[in-house]
Amino acid sequence: MSCADCGNIAKEAREIVAEVGSEPEKVIPLLQEIQNRHGYLSQELVEAVAEEIKLPVSRLYGVATFYSQFRFEPIGKNLIKVCKGTACHVAGAEKVYSIISEKLGIEEGETTDDQLFTLESVACLGCCSLAPVVMINDSIYGKLNPAKMGKILKEYADGK
Q1: At what angle do helices 27-38 and 3-20 cross, to 10 degrees?
Q2: Cα–Cα distance for residue pair 93/25, rounded to 1 Å
Q3: Which residues are part of a known binding site?
Q4: pLDDT in the model for residue 68
Q5: CA–CA separation, 113 vs 124, rounded Å?
Q6: Is 36 helix (H, G, I), strand (E, B) or coil?
Q7: Shortest CA distance to 125 belongs to which of 81, 78, 77, 93?
Q8: Residues within the annotated binding site for [2Fe-2S] cluster?
Q9: DSSP 140
Q10: What is the pLDDT along the chain (160 residues), one digit of tens a residue?
Q11: What is the domain partition of the chain in residue ranges?
Q12: For the chain, is the Cβ count within 10 Å smaller at the N or the C terminus?
């Protein structure tokens, strides 16, 4: 990392702390803001925020590793969440998951080489009447089958 990057990271850490607050009870919102800005928790920015709020970096990592919402690696432009709850499982979620994995060449938690897609499975998306369901970014797609899923992936690959 260059010195220019160090300055930018320190500046961004100050901005985040100014926006969210520096109290110890603000650790989760601070981590959420870092992740909202970058899609994951970069080591440099977590360390800079810890320094800014005068807490040990281990405290921030302790919180971040406890909650599954936090990521430590960049994700793709499109985050695909496949629901594997009971209703989706019964309705064929595994077939939908398999077509996504096959077409993109990635497995759970992986990102495509072009950084376009990241694949995750989740316990429930709360859309049981639409089973099987997939969420891509903030959009929900329901009553899926492999053909529909393939068409949706192509739309996103083409720049939807």
Answers
A1: 130
A2: 38
A3: 83, 88, 124, 128
A4: 81
A5: 27
A6: helix
A7: 81
A8: 83, 88, 124, 128
A9: E
A10: 445 566 799 999 999 999 999 998 999 999 999 999 988 999 999 999 999 999 999 999 999 999 888 999 889 999 999 999 999 999 999 999 999 999 999 999 899 999 999 999 999 999 999 999 999 999 999 999 999 999 999 999 998 7
A11: 3-66, 78-157
A12: N
Considering the domain 78-157 in this protein, what is its CATH number? 3.40.30.10
Phi-psi region of 92 (alpha: psi -120 to 50; beta: other; left: phi over 0): left
Q: Cα-flanking dihedrals φ and ψ of residue 57, to 5°?
A: -60, -30
**Model-level pTM?**
0.75
> Per-residue pLDDT tens for 79-109?
999 999 999 999 999 999 999 999 999 999 8
